[in-house]
Specification:
Blueprint: H1 16-42, E1 46-51, H2 62-68, H3 72-75, H4 86-90, H5 93-104, E2 107-114, E3 120-131, E4 137-146, H6 148-170, E5 174-179, E6 185-188, H7 190-196, H8 200-203, H9 214-218, H10 221-232, E7 234-242, E8 248-259, E9 265-274, H11 276-329, H12 334-360, E10 369-371, H13 373-387, E11 394-397, E12 405-407, H14 409-425, E13 433-442, E14 453-462, H15 469-474, H16 492-502, E15 506-512, E16 516-524, E17 549-553, H17 557-569, E18 573-577, H18 580-590, E19 596-600, H19 608-618, E20 624-628, E21 642-645, H20 650-661, E22 668-670
Parallel strand pairs: 11-13, 17-18, 17-19, 19-20, 20-21, 21-22
Antiparallel strand pairs: 1-4, 2-3, 3-4, 5-6, 5-9, 7-8, 8-9, 10-12, 13-14, 14-16, 15-16
The structure holds adenosine-5'-triphosphate and magnesium ion.
């Protein structure tokens, strides 16, 4: 290190130690000077340089060289205004900057500056005046920092924020808005405006609880939601929200907390979606599923009930058949006759019950024909009024014109009677019953679970106790009754339900607990081409037939025995077969002596219809009677066939024999007398 000393700096009269001291001071000052230079020259992140009072550059550090691109040789002595843009020079900014620095003690600014290569940099500039100890301006210290990168980042951030704002603003399907920590709306996007109906001006500053329903506000839900967000960071729920016009929509809502750098709660971000439609679809789906499960259940119960009823039917046929033969052959003993009569009555009641079960299982024999529903109701008026007490008036309402329904008239009467009795039972303290009918058209399949077409809708409405939801759901199930043991069988509605379904219609129950019930029977309208086809079968007086040989086919030995007994009682010979195959074997052996075949329908191996086909192929002229409790026979197989509904009595059998021996070429169905 070089220490320069001149004469003025050392007084000649000074003591030696003073010289040493002064030397040390001087050494230290020079040392410091040097260190400062070193410091300034090693700084590369700041341009640090000096200007003379006129603004010419007097010193230049490596930072300056790095930022601006000039070496010190190139720039020292040049005016600093060349770092400014043309626009800034045009407004005299360089001179103003120096002036401000000189008068105010500093000039500070961020702005564009020009590098040697002409490119721009965003600079933070600080200019301080340098004054001599006597206050004279000797120049300026200038410190410049290149903030281009920071500015680029900031600009990018600003742009992305702007884009984000535009995005949020533009979203139509979500309401996206912010709340302040107290829950007042502080921003609002277009989706929010679309869903909720408020404009920005109307809603900003308002408390968000106004979107909630009154019930939710009463329970403090809005406050709880914000509380949840504040403690757990997020709240998510679905519920009803209210639009400006007061209508409601089903909303999916997410609220998130917005926190500052230090974790303090700044507000809430709220995203709401209108999911009303999705909810409707979902509910519809659930309802469909429930209906499907219910119909499957009914189907299963139907199969079970149908099976049981079918067997019972056969057993009752045997009992009734044997009883009627016994009654005939009875010695003249009134007491015994009474016993038999009672047994016949009981068996007939049993047959009625099994018939209801078969009806529920949609397996009853229906004789469908055109029915004038109002006419049928009028015909029953007296019977209906008699079945209910006189303090319950029954009124009817029918349109002037109503198409004919295609339905089994006597089953319909039974159904109507059942519905009226149900209505009566629901009104122990009186009330009124209205029976009405109207025409309904169904255009789409799913609307009522019925095929498209025209229907006569017959309804029985009461003002009684109504049904709870659980009762309503179970009312049509067989054996479901709320009437207590021995009072109701619980088969009334089941029967009607099955009957309506089998008729191509439907039973619809509507009920409100405490207000009353409406039962609607939807029945298909007669189609024109059917109007002339089905007619009442004339029941001929029964002439005495010549003795015949009859082949009876039934897989149930009891039934077989019973039919044989009835036939023998009528004076005929009987051959028995327990299967179709056996029957065909007998026919092969002795067809010439057989006058008639009576066969059951449901048999293992070969059904009645199959047997009939085989017989027709080999013995075209041989008459056949199909005895069956089932209605599920292929329609095209029925032409020219005489059918006998099970269970039947001897008289039914006798009538069928008479009919078949005088063939009329049409489908004839005999219904058991006690239906
Ligand atoms: N009009 C009605 N008002 C209120 N509840 C009814 C009505 N109709 C039917 N119900 C309810 O549905 C149940 C089933 O009715 P359903 O006709 O099948 O059988 P039930 O009337 O109890 O017995 P049954 O018909 O053999 O006399 C009834 O027990 C009752 O609880
Ligand atoms: Mg009933």
């Amino acid at each position: 290190m070089v220490i320069r000393m001149n004469d003025e700096q050392i007084r000649p009269d000074a003591q030696q130690n003073q010289v040493v001291k002064a030397t040390q001071v001087l050494e230290t000052a020079a040392d410091r000077d040097d260190r400062y230079r070193l410091l300034v020259e090693s700084i590369v992140d700041y341009a640090i340089y000096m200007l003379d009072p006129q603004g010419n550059i007097a010193s230049w550090n490596p930072g300056a060289q790095r930022f601006k691109g000039y070496t010190s040789d190139e720039i020292i002595g040049q005016h600093f205004s060349q770092f400014y843009t043309e626009e800034d020079r045009a407004t005299d900014l360089p001179a103003r900057a120096l002036h401000i620095a000189a008068t105010d003690g500093r000039f500070e600014q961020e702005g564009w500056r020009v590098r040697k290569d002409g490119s721009l940099m965003w600079a933070h500039v600080l200019i301080d005046p340098i004054r001599s100890p006597d206050g004279q301006l000797v120049g300026y210290a200038k410190i410049t920092r290149d903030l281009s990168e920071r500015k680029a980042t900031q600009d990018a951030l600003r742009q992305s924020e702007q884009r984000f704002r535009l995005l949020v603003q533009g979203v139509q399907d979500y309401a996206i808005y912010m709340l302040d920590p107290q829950g007042a709306v502080s921003s609002w996007n277009r989706g929010a405006q679309r869903f909720k109906g408020y404009t920005d001006e109307e809603i900003i500053g308002q408390h968000f609880s106004r979107f909630y329903t009154e019930e939710d506000r009463a329970t403090g839900l809005p406050a709880r939601a914000l509380q949840t967000v504040a403690t757990e960071g997020r709240f998510e729920a679905e519920g009803w929200r209210v639009r400006k016009d007061g209508t409601r929509f089903w909303a999916h809502v997410v609220i998130d907390a917005i926190r500052g750098d230090h974790g303090e709660l700044v507000g809430f971000a709220k995203i709401t979606r209108d999911v009303t439609e999705r909810r409707n679809v979902q509910q519809e789906l659930e309802a469909t599923r429930a209906r499907f499960i219910q119909s499957q259940k009914m189907e299963a119960i139907g199969q079970l009930t149908g099976g049981v009823a079918h067997d019972f039917n056969n057993l009752l046929a045997v009992v009734l058949g044997n009883l009627s033969i016994a009654r005939k052959r009875l010695p003249n003993d009134p007491k015994l006759l009474q016993l038999i009569e009672n047994s016949i009555q009981a068996a007939e009641r049993g047959a009625t019950l099994t018939k209801r079960m078969l009806a529920f299982a949609r397996r009853q024999e229906l004789t469908r024909g055109p029915v004038d529903v109002p006419e049928l109701v009028r015909g029953m008026a007296e019977l209906l009024q008699r079945s209910i007490s006189s303090n319950i008036p029954v009124s009817t309402q029918f349109p002037l014109q109503l198409p004919l329904a295609f339905v089994d008239a006597s089953q319909l009467e039974l159904a109507l009677l059942n519905l009226t009795v149900n209505a009566r039972d629901a009104m122990p303290d009186g009330g009124s019953i209205t029976i009405s009918a109207r025409e309904e058209r169904i255009s789409t399949r799913e609307a009522a679970g019925l095929p498209a077409g025209s229907y006569v809708c017959l309804s029985v409405t009461d003002t009684g106790m109504g049904m709870s939801e659980e009762t309503l759901a179970k009312a049509t199930e067989p054996f479901f009754t709320t009437k207590g043991v021995g009072k109701g069988t619980g088969l009334g509605l089941s029967m009607i339900h099955g009957f309506a379904g089998q008729s191509g219609g439907r039973l619809v129950l509507k009920s409100i607990l405490g207000q009353g019930t409406t039962a609607e029977l939807w029945l298909p309208v007669v189609e024109a081409h059917l109007l002339h086809q089905e007619g009442e079968t004339p029941h001929p007086d029964l002439p005495i037939l010549n003795p015949m040989t009859v082949l009876v086919v039934d897989d149930d030995p009891l039934v077989l025995m019973n039919i044989s007994a009835m036939l023998e009682d009528l004076g005929h010979e009987v051959l028995e077969a327990t299967s179709g195959q056996q029957a065909l074997r007998i026919l092969r052996r002795s067809a010439e002596i057989i006058d008639l075949v009576i066969t059951d329908q449901i048999m293992p191996g070969m059904s009645g219809v199959q047997l009939i086909e085989a017989i027709r192929a080999a013995h075209a002229e041989l008459p056949v009677i199909l005895a069956s409790g089932y209605s599920e026979l292929p329609e095209d197989k029925l032409t020219g066939l005489v059918r006998l509904g099970k269970p039947f009595e001897q008289a039914d059998l006798a009538r069928a024999l008479v009919t078949i021996m005088r063939p009329s070429g049409q489908v004839l169905t005999f219904r058991p007398k006690h239906s």
